[in-house]
Structures are given as structure tokens and as C-alpha cells.
Specification:
The complex is a heterotrimer of chains A (283), B (293) and C (353).
Chain A (H helix, E strand, L loop, with lengths): L8 H24 L16 H8 L1 H34 L5 H13 L2 H12 L10 H26 L2 H10 L4 H12 L1 H16 L3 H7 L6 H8 L4 H28 L9 H8 L6
Chain B lengths: L3 H14 L1 H29 L1 E2 L2 E2 L2 H8 L1 H33 L3 H14 L5 H11 L4 H8 L14 H26 L2 H9 L4 H30 L2 H7 L6 H10 L6 H33 L1
Antiparallel strand pairs in B: 1-2
Chain C lengths: L1 E12 L2 E12 L3 E5 L6 H9 L6 E6 L2 E2 L10 E4 L11 H11 L4 H14 L15 H13 L5 E5 L7 H18 L2 E6 L2 H7 L2 E6 L2 E6 L1 H6 L4 H6 L4 E9 L4 E4 L2 E4 L8 E7 L5 E3 L9 E13 L3 E8 L2 E8 L12 E7 L4 E2 L2
Parallel strand pairs in C: 3-8, 3-9, 6-7, 7-8
Antiparallel strand pairs in C: 1-2, 1-4, 4-5, 9-10, 11-12, 11-14, 12-13, 14-20, 15-19, 16-17, 16-19, 17-18
Helix pairs in contact in C: 2-3, 2-4, 3-4, 4-5
The chains are: A mainly alpha (283), B mainly alpha (293), C alpha+beta (353).
Chain lengths: 283, 293, 353
């Protein structure tokens, strides 16, 4: 395609799009630093009071802690379990590759609200009554993030031609575990980091499973925000900005990692990479 | 031709060789079983049983209830409108990005990548901040003498919901369509020009047909995205608005209307619709790859 | 003595029988090449020796030990891959040292040995480079060093030169042969390039459709191909279709020319004869004709310069005959379209069918 700037059309389109996407965030930011803002277009005074309140409110702090804990645990356990599974089916058990791919696509057809209906019925009572606990969130978040993790890891394995690298390692006397840990893992690290960042961002923003499966019994930041937004707008705006900053950091790191990864097939436009990696579903 | 027993022997040999691999899969298999496969089976099973045996009563209830049919219709219309608009804006934005300078493009792509994960409850709140009854934009236009809420607008209604859905559809659409534009090579334009095709003919015969699978595929992803969305509408209307995901959640976690069988049936219906759109995306994806090769 | 033995190896992919009863003995220090077109089963055979493919039936013996069910990392092999397969996260030195580290050698000995062998393959200046900073040829040298530093029982090479440029390919081919001779490494080499196979091997096993169709020294394969497949796959071959006119003397008629071929005695009907381009002699003007040759005349079509060799294509009736000659004075002066005569030595004729 022609990369020349031609006319005003593109500039107008991008400006409008940026406004549509930017104004809600900007307004929320203004609201979060506004002292009085009742009937004027711009705030009448400015303050950091709401942020101070946010980080001194034990309820919010505990929620931040819980959100980080469950999102971090999802990233850690997800990578720990899905990386070997993706590798083993890729390298040693090609017969199970189809089943694995199916499991990795299925969550796309199971948005939280659907998954929750099955999970509630299974885990509210019975032999494993973990509904309402941290654990059901952890395991169901892993399923929600399974597609991103699996795709990111599998793409990385293919990009480095892990099959041949592992054979090379084995021909040099390494057993399978050594080949996996010393050769495969270091070389797919960018893919693992991407998968982790995306999983973190998605887990942090998860609402439906949390609301339906644990509700008030394990209050994450999203739940606290949902309760607060109908009561205290200013505090809510501070929480929204905190959430926005966290998501922004994850996304920026994700782009940074994606651009730093050398691709076999020569140069890839950063946008193309972003597009293929960041198809995180909205809620 | 290998005999059956030799095939069996080979499989046994493989099994013995790969025993550790199979054990390595176990943790994942357990999680997938417990939190993906069993819930799905339970869902389907629950939807087709009533009392002690097989029954389609749950589906019958939904299909004959005006209330549930309306929620399905509302979900479909909301998704359709936000997806069509989302794809349209996405095409325009992707085209504009393609025509922009490198720095502008990178900056915009970065911003869009951030926005794609900004959704759900925080997004609903942000829209209340600008378009709520005392929101920033509501106030701004009232200074110009137009009172939105007197004109019948409300962020808590269908219109407001559509605007918010559109917000999370645009970045996704742009990110998905942009690579397709990138796939249209400069050489193709030159080759077409060499063969006597002007810009109009180029887009008519080469450009749009190349983009079509990506556009349709993106549309189906957006449909699935919107159909399954829950948080935005829940936060905005405290779970009252009549769309299918909110109905389902009421049926399974509400105290008054608790009916897991009905919830399962509604969830299966929603799931099947999603599968339909995701299958459409798969078809389009393979077509897109075909043209790229 | 037999160093590597393959006994009735079989491999199926589903219903596809890709390696059929392959048996082979490789001597200590021998350089054996598996040669064949893609899909003939040569790589699968190599991968069964390496331990990367399950052996459906049969045995692989290395140094007298049945390794058929031994994992790849305990077979004592060294392997070089077409795609180099260097570990991208390690320097050249660490790549070479990897196998020694797996042997639990201490760090100092490892570095010393790795350094020494890298010098031997001419890479002392780039030992701290990462693979992506090396050229293809350099990468394959590292891979070669990495495979032999462990002093494997057998070195396996799977199309190691296919991804390289023509010039580098020849340099590296010579390096491989050189190292193999110097260290007396038992080597099994897979390639589809017949010229490569002819130039580098002690023996060649030509494979087709999962079967070894001929096993022998390069010259044997080239001069006395076992069947039409080998004859056409190895080297360039002119095919001359004809008809046996006298079964008792072996007289055949080819493009209107009659010739007596003793090897055809007892045959009748249609035959196809083959002859290598360099065996044919081109006669200019009214030069003296050799004996034991069948003389043909045809129309000169093209002259192509290959460097030291000139390839002349002559039209003989419907078919084309290729003739290779050394690029000596006068050869290039022949004119396209002119009538030429050429002699085919009867003893060099191959009977294809």
C-alpha cells in the first residue's frame, strides 16, 4: 500500500476515533482529580483527595491485593500448566494435537456468563464445594485465558522450530526435561511473557465470573468498583484510573515484548503483531 | 498394509515411550476437565432434563416466553448494531492508519491496543461520567441549550448501551482489520496500474475482494464479543436491562428466579449462536490465509 | 567390522509404508550416503537411527548394541540438521559446549574442548557470536562442531547443505569430508543431491519408495546402475528409444541408425538405451571415426558453456541427445543448425528396458 499522506481524510478519521476512545478516559481522569464539579463544564477545583482515599481505604486496598493475587496466580499457574501441555502435544503427542486445539478454542464459545452456569451447578455443593472461594476463580480464569496462552506458546514454538531444536538437544545427550528447560523455555520466553501480560490484563478486568461465582465472598477490585460506582463517583473514578494505568502498562509491555522478538519471516509491522496478539475479548 | 494387531503393538510401543509425556499433560487435563469440559457437559445435560428424565421443557419455556425471546432479540440487535458500526469504523480507521506516517500510526496503534482491554465495569463508569444525567458532555451541550435527557436520551437505555458497546468494538475491529490492509501490497497496486487499472478498478477488483474475508471474519468476532458481554450492561443498569446474558445470570444466581435448568437452556442457546459466528470466522480466516499465500 | 547395523527396518505413517525392510551395514569409519528423491524414506530411516522416530519393526544396532528402544539422548549419536538447529539463546561456544555439559564435564574442560573444535572448523573469531549474528555457512560449521565434539559413535547428517549457497555448499562439503577422514567418524549422510553423494561418499545406498534399490561405491552406482530409476536419478542420462531388429545378434535400430549391442542378445521388441553425455564423442568434419562406436548424425541445436565443460545438444530425430565435452579450443566454434556426427561407444550403453 501507498504510505504517502494523502489529503485530510485519514487525519479526520483518526482524530474522531481518538476522541471517541479518549474522551471517556480523559473525563474520568478529570473527575478523579476534581474537587467540586457539579454544574460546570470543567471542574471548579482540583484535588488528589480521591486517590489518597483510595489508597487508604482498607476495603479498596484489600480488593487491590485480592485482584493482584488472583491475577498473578492465574498467570503463574496457567503458564506452569499450559506451557508443558502445549509443548508435549506439539513435540511428542501429535495425536492429541487436535483435542488440545479444540480445548483452546472452546473458551471463545464459552463467555463467562455461560461458563458460570455450569460451574455454579458443579461446585456449589457436591464433593468439591469451592464456589465462593479464591480457587474457583483461579481455575476458571485459567480456562478463560487458555486461548491466549495456548496460541501465544504454540506460535512461539513454531517460530523457533522447537521440534528440531529439541531433537538437536536430545542428540547432544539432553533428556527431555533438560531439553525443555534449557533449550525450549529460554527461547520462547518472549511468548511466555506476552501470554502472561495478556492473561494478567484479562484477569484483572474479569467481572462476570467473579460476580456470579464468588460475589461478595471474594471482593476483587472490579466488584468493589461496581459497588462503589453507584455510591461514590469520585472514589470510583480514582479506581477506574488505577485500573486504566495497570491495563496500559500491561499493553505497553506487551507491545514492547512483541517488537523485541525477532521473527523468522523478516520484518513484521508492529501493528500486525499487535493485531494478532491482542484480540482480548471485551466484557 | 499393516495388520490390526501390529497397529495395536505400535500404539502400545508409543504409549510406553510417551508415558512421561502423558503424565506431564495431567495437570492441564485435570483443570480442563474440571473447569471446561464438565461444566459444559453439565450445562448441556441440565438444559435437556427436567425432573428425572430427558425433557425439552426448558427450551420450550424459553421459545414460548415473550420475556426471554425479547432478551434474545435485544441481545441480537444490540450486538448487530454495535458490530456493524464497529466494523465500519474499524475499516475506516485501519485505512487511515495505513495512510498515515509511521510515528502517528505507531502511537495510534499503541493507544488502540490499550483501549482494547479497557472494557466492562470501568468503561460503563467512564460513560456515566461523560453522558450520565450530570455527565461532562451532558452539561456541555446543555450550556449550548440542548438538554439531552429532556430529548429522550439516557445512558441507561438502549442508545447508551449501544454507544458503550461501540466503544469496545472499535479497537478490536481496528486491530483485526489492520493486518488485512497491510496485506495489500504496494506491488499489487503497481501491477494493477501497469495492466491499466485505475484506483477505482483496483479497489473494485482487487482491494475489496482481498479485504472481504477479513471484514466478515472480524464482524463475526465482534458479534460473538458483544453477544457474550455482561459486565458493561450489568454495571450500567445494575443487572436489570433485558439482554440474554443478564437473564441467564439472574436465573442462576438470583434468589427469586432461581432456575438452573432454564439458565442452562438459555446458556446453550447463547453458546450455539456464538459457535455459529465463530465458525463463520474460521471459514473466513482460512479464506484470508488462502489469498495471502 | 559392522559398526552400525540396520536390520529389516519398517516404518508406517498410518497406512503408508514409508520404509520397507531396510537392512544395511555400515563399517567403522565409513562414510555412507542415503540418496534418493524426497519422500523416498531416507530421512525417516536416518531419524529411526537417531531415535526420533519409533521403529515399527526391525532393529538398529550401534557398536553391537541394540538401541531400537533406547531414547535418542542415550544412543551416542551426533546429528547435523538441514536448518542448523543452533540454540538461538546460546553463543557459538555455548552451543558447542552444550553436549559436553550434558556429559557433566566441568566448565573449564568444556570451554577448552569447544574452543579447540571451533578453531578446527575455522570459527575462532566468532565464538562469542549468537547464531543470528552468523552466516548460514558459519552456523552449519558450528552445528558440525557441536555434533562431533562429543566424539559420537556415529555422525548423522540430514541434508546439511541444502539450505546453503552453491559455493559455500562445496566448501562445507570438503570440510565435512576432511573432518570425517581425519577423525575416522562413522558417518551416515542423507541427501537428494546425487552430485553431492557421488563426491563425498565411500558407499551410496540409493533409495526409492522406501526401499534400498542399489548399494555400492559411487563409481559403481554411476557406471552400473541397477535399474532404470538409479540410472536416471544419478547423473545425466540420454535416453535413446529403439527397436531390436535381430534377437540373435542384438542388432537394434535407433532413429534410423542400426547398431549391434551384445547386451541386447536374446531381447526383442522395443528397448530404451541410455548413455551418459560424457561418453559420447562429437566428430567435427571428416575426422577419423573410432571403433566400437555406433555413429549417428543429427542437427546441432544449442551449445551451453558450464565452465570447464561444454554441453552440446543435438537433435536426433524426435529426441535430443546431450553431449558433454571439455572446454577446449574449437569446441565453441560449432554452429547451431549445422549437421554433426557423434559416436556412442557400444560398451557404455545402458539397457533401461
Amino acid at each position: 500500500m501507498n504510505k504517502k499522506v494523502s489529503g485530510r481524510g485519514p487525519a479526520i478519521i483518526l482524530t474522531l476515533a481518538a476522541l471517541y476512545l479518549g474522551v471517556p478516559i480523559l473525563a474520568t481522569f478529570m473527575f478523579s482529580v476534581a474537587g467540586r464539579w457539579d454544574s460546570t463544564v470543567l471542574p471548579e477545583s482540583y484535588t488528589f483527595h480521591w486517590y489518597v482515599r483510595m489508597i487508604t481505604d482498607p476495603l479498596v486496598l484489600a480488593a487491590i491485593g485480592r485482584s493482584f493475587l488472583v491475577s498473578g496466580a492465574t498467570v503463574a499457574l496457567g503458564l506452569l500448566v499450559i506451557t508443558p501441555a502445549a509443548f508435549i502435544t506439539y513435540q511428542y503427542l501429535p495425536a492429541l494435537r487436535g483435542a488440545m486445539r479444540f480445548l483452546a478454542v472452546l473458551p471463545f464459545a464459552l463467555p463467562g456468563v455461560i461458563l458460570a452456569v455450569g460451574l455454579i451447578q458443579l461446585y456449589s455443593s457436591g464433593p468439591l464445594p469451592i464456589a465462593g472461594t479464591f480457587w474457583i476463580l483461579l481455575f476458571s480464569y485459567i480456562i478463560v485465558c487458555l486461548p491466549y496462552m495456548f496460541n501465544s506458546i504454540t506460535n512461539s514454538l513454531q517460530a523457533i522450530d522447537a521440534r528440531t531444536l529439541v531433537e538437536a538437544a536430545e542428540s547432544l545427550g539432553a533428556n527431555r526435561t533438560a531439553a525443555f528447560i534449557k533449550v525450549v523455555v529460554p527461547n520462547i520466553k518472549p511468548g511466555l511473557i506476552s501470554a502472561g501480560l495478556l492473561t494478567f490484563a484479562v484477569s484483572l478486568g474479569e467481572f462476570v465470573l467473579t460476580n456470579m461465582l464468588v460475589g461478595g465472598r471474594y471482593q476483587t477490585l472490579q466488584l468493589v468498583l461496581e459497588k462503589a460506582m453507584h455510591v461514590d463517583g469520585h472514589l470510583s473514578s480514582a479506581i477506574v484510573m488505577l485500573y486504566f494505568v495497570l491495563v496500559a502498562i500491561s499493553s505497553l509491555l506487551l507491545i514492547f515484548v512483541a517488537q523485541g522478538t525477532p521473527r523468522r519471516s523478516g520484518k513484521v509491522d508492529p501493528g500486525t503483531q499487535a493485531g494478532s496478539q491482542m484480540t482480548g475479548y471485551a466484557q | 498394509m499393516p495388520s490390526r494387531s501390529s497397529v495395536l503393538a505400535r500404539n502400545l510401543k508409543l504409549l510406553r515411550k510417551e508415558i512421561w509425556s502423558i503424565l506431564g499433560l495431567l495437570p492441564f487435563a485435570l483443570i480442563a476437565l474440571g473447569f471446561e469440559i464438565l461444566p459444559t457437559l453439565r450445562l448441556v445435560g441440565g438444559s435437556i432434563s427436567a425432573g428425572d428424565g430427558f425433557s425439552l421443557a426448558n427450551y420450550q419455556t424459553i421459545m414460548t416466553s415473550k420475556f426471554y425471546l425479547t432478551s434474545l432479540k435485544n441481545s441480537l440487535i444490540l450486538s448487530l448494531v454495535s458490530s456493524v458500526l464497529g466494523v465500519t469504523v474499524g475499516i475506516l480507521a485501519a485505512y487511515a492508519l495505513n495512510r498515515s506516517r509511521q510515528q502517528l500510526r505507531d502511537a495510534m496503534m499503541t493507544f488502540i491496543s490499550i483501549c482494547v482491554n479497557f472494557a466492562g465495569v470501568p468503561l460503563a463508569f467512564a460513560f456515566i461520567v461523560i453522558l450520565g444525567s450530570s455527565g461532562a458532555i451532558t452539561l456541555l451541550v446543555s450550556k449550548l441549550g440542548i438538554n439531552l435527557y429532556d430529548q429522550g436520551f439516557s445512558i441507561y437505555t438502549w442508545t447508551g448501551l449501544s454507544l458503550i458497546y461501540l466503544y469496545f468494538q472499535i479497537p478490536l475491529a481496528t486491530l483485526l482489520i489492520y493486518p488485512a490492509f497491510y496485506g495489500i501490497r504496494k506491488e499489487w497496486v503497481e501491477a494493477a496500474a501497469n495492466l491499466g487499472a485505475g484506483p477505482v478498478q483496483f479497489w473494485r477488483y482487487i482491494g475489496l475482494p482481498t479485504l472481504a474475508p477479513a471484514i466478515l471474519g472480524t464482524f463475526s468476532i465482534l458479534m460473538a464479543n458483544a453477544l457474550g458481554a455482561y459486565a458493561t450492561a450489568y454495571a450500567l443498569t445494575t443487572g436489570i436491562y433485558n439482554i440474554l446474558p443478564l437473564r441467564i445470570s439472574r436465573l442462576i444466581s438470583g434468589e427469586v428466579s432461581y432456575d438452573p435448568g432454564l439458565a442452562s437452556a438459555a446458556a446453550v442457546i447463547l453458546g450455539l449462536i456464538m459457535v455459529l459466528f465463530l465458525a463463520l470466522n474460521q471459514v473466513m480466516l482460512s479464506r484470508f490465509r488462502g489469498t495471502k499465500a | 567390522m559392522e559398526h552400525v547395523g540396520l536390520h529389516n527396518l519398517n516404518k508406517f505413517y498410518g497406512q503408508n509404508h514409508v520404509v520397507k525392510n531396510v537392512s544395511l551395514e555400515v563399517q567403522k569409519g565409513e562414510f555412507l550416503t542415503l540418496l534418493g528423491p524426497s519422500g523416498c524414506g531416507k530421512s525417516t530411516t536416518l531419524r529411526m537411527i537417531a531415535g526420533f522416530e519409533v521403529i515399527d519393526s526391525g532393529q538398529v544396532l550401534i557398536h553391537g548394541r541394540d538401541v531400537s528402544n533406547v531414547p535418542a539422548n542415550r544412543r551416542g549419536i551426533g546429528m547435523v540438521f538441514q536448518s542448523y538447529a543452533l540454540f538461538p539463546n546460546m553463543t557459538a561456544l555455548d552451543n558447542v559446549g552444550f553436549g559436553l555439559k550434558m556429559q557433566k564435564l566441568d566448565a573449564r574442560t568444556t570451554r577448552g574442548k569447544a574452543r579447540k573444535i571451533l578453531a578446527e572448523v575455522g570459527l575462532e573469531s566468532v565464538i562469542d557470536h549468537l547464531p543470528h549474528q552468523l552466516s548460514g555457512g558459519q552456523q552449519q560449521r558450528v552445528a558440525l562442531a557441536r555434533a562431533i565434539v562429543r566424539e559420537p559413535e556415529v555422525l548423522l547428517l540430514d541434508e546439511p547443505l541444502s539450505a546453503l549457497d552453491a559455493k559455500i555448499r562445496i566448501q562445507l562439503r570438503e570440510l565435512i569430508k576432511d573432518l570425517q577422514i581425519r577423525r575416522q567418524i562413522t558417518t551416515i549422510y542423507v541427501t537428494h543431491d546425487q552430485e553431492e553423494a557421488l563426491s563425498i561418499s565411500d558407499r551410496i545406498a540409493v533409495m526409492n519408495q522406501g526401499v534400498i534399490v542399489q548399494l555400492g561405491a559411487p563409481n559403481e552406482i554411476y557406471a552400473r546402475p541397477a535399474d532404470p530409476f538409479v540410472a536416471t536419478f544419478v547423473g545425466t542420462l540420454n535416453k535413446l528409444p529403439g527397436q531390436v531388429v535381430d534377437t540373435t545378434t542384438g542388432m537394434a535400430e535407433i532413429a534410423g541408425h542400426r547398431m549391434t549391442v551384445p547386451a541386447l542378445i536374446g531381447r526383442a521388441g522395443r528397448v530404451t538405451l541410455g548413455v551418459r553425455p560424457e561418453k559420447i564423442r562429437l566428430y567435427a568434419g571428416d575426422a577419423n571415426l573410432g571403433t566400437g562406436e555406433a555413429i549417428f548424425s543429427g542437427v546441432l541445436k544449442t551449445i551451453a558453456l558450464f565452465g570447464s565443460v561444454v554441453r552440446i545438444t543435438v537433435l536426433l530425430g524426435e529426441s535430443e541427445v546431450k553431449i558433454d565435452m571439455l572446454n577446449k579450443e574449437g569446441v565453441l566454434e560449432a554452429r547451431a543448425g549445422s549437421e554433426v556426427r557423434f559416436g556412442v561407444p557400444v560398451e557404455n550403453l545402458l539397457i533401461l528396458n
